[in-house]
Amino acid sequence: MAATEAGGSAAAVVEAASSDRFQQLLQQPGRSLVVVHFWAPWAPQCVQMNSVMAELAKEHPRVTFMKLEAEAVPEVSEKYEITSVPTFLFFKNSQKIDRLDGAHAPELTKKVQRHATSSSVPAGSNDGAKEDLNVRLKKLINAAPCMLFMKGTPQEPRCGFSRQIVEILNKHKIVFSSFDIFSDEEVRQGLKIYSSWPTYPQLYMAGELIGGLDIVKELEASGELDTICPKAHKLEDRLKELINKASVVLFMKGNKQVAKCGFSKQIIQILNNTGVDYETFDILEDEEVRQGLKKYSDWPTYPQLYVKGELVGGLDIVKELNENGELSSVLKGEN
C-alpha cells in the first residue's frame, strides 16, 4: 500500500520495512505517541486492522501510525515478544507504554484516544499515575488468596514456564486465580518494578510474592508448597462470598467507570438511572470466577445481576423489569 509519511500532506499509516526504519520512526520529533501494528499479509484480520489504523490516522494527525510486517523484521518482533498477529504496541518518547493483542478495533480506538489525550501531560504528573498503578497492582495481587500472574490462562498457557507452574498447582489441588499479563501491558511492566521480580510467571499468596517457576519447583521438592499455599477456599465458597459482598452485585466486563462490552454498558446505564447502590466485579480480571460463575448460576453469559445473593438475570431480564416498572423494587429486595 502506498503510504504518505507522517509529516506529509495527508495522515496515513507508515510502513517500517527494517529495524533501522522502525527506530527512526520511533524517534520523530514532535510525535509523542507512536502506534505500531505488527501484522502479516496472509492474515485477513490484519488487513482489516490496517484499515482501522488508516481511519484512526485521519482522526489523530499528531499520532504516528506504523505497520511492521512481523515475519519480515524478526529482530524487532523478537525484541518485543510478538507471538501472534495482529499485535499493537504503543510508544511514547521511544518507550513502550502499552500493548494490545488481537483484532479488537474498539479497544484499539479506546487506547489510542486515551494515550493521545494524555500525551501532553508534563513528566512530573507521572507520580500520580504511578501511585494509581500501585493501588491497582495491590488490589490485583490480593484479588484471591493465591494469585498467579502468567502468560495466557490456566486453560491456555502461552509459554512453557506458565504451563509448568499451572501443572504443579493443579497437581497439588491448589485453588488459584490468575491474571493474563498479555491482556494489560501496564500491569505487565508495572508488576516487575512493584515486586522487584523481572520475569513471569509470578505466584502470590495472601498478597505476598512467593516467586517464579524455579522457586515453586524448589518448594514442591521440599514439601513446603502445600504449607505455603494451603488449599484455598473451594471455588463455590468464594463465589458465594462474591455474590453476597453487597446487596446488589453486577458481574460484568469492566467496571462502573469503564464498561468493556456493549451489554455491560447498557446494564450499567439502566442501574445508574434507578439510583440504587450496587457493586461490580470485573470478570475479565479473574478467569476462575468468569468460568465458575457460569456453572454455579447455570447462566452462560455476562453481565449477571445478583440481589441479596440471588441471580436476577442478564441484560434482557433487567430491561424487561425496567420496562415493567419492577426493577427498583427487585433491586431493593422487595420482590
Plain-language structure description:
The chain has 335 residues and is of the alpha/beta class. Helices cover 43% and strands 19% of the residues. The chain is built from 14 helices and 13 strands. The protein has helices spanning 19-26, 44-59, 74-79, 105-117, 126-141, 160-171, 185-195, 213-222, 225-228, 235-243, 262-274, 287-297, 315-323, 327-331; strands at 13-15, 33-39, 64-69, 87-92, 95-101, 146-150, 177-180, 202-205, 208-211, 248-252, 279-282, 304-307, 310-313. The chain has a five-stranded mixed sheet, sandwiched between helices. It has a four-stranded mixed sheet with strand order 7-6-8-9. A hairpin with a 2-residue loop joins β8 (202-205) and β9. α6 packs parallel to α8 and α11 packs parallel to α13 (315-323). The longest helix is centred in the N-terminal third of the chain and has 16 residues, at 44-59. The radius of gyration is 22 Å and the shape is globular. The model is unreliable at 1-10 and 119-126 (pLDDT under 50).
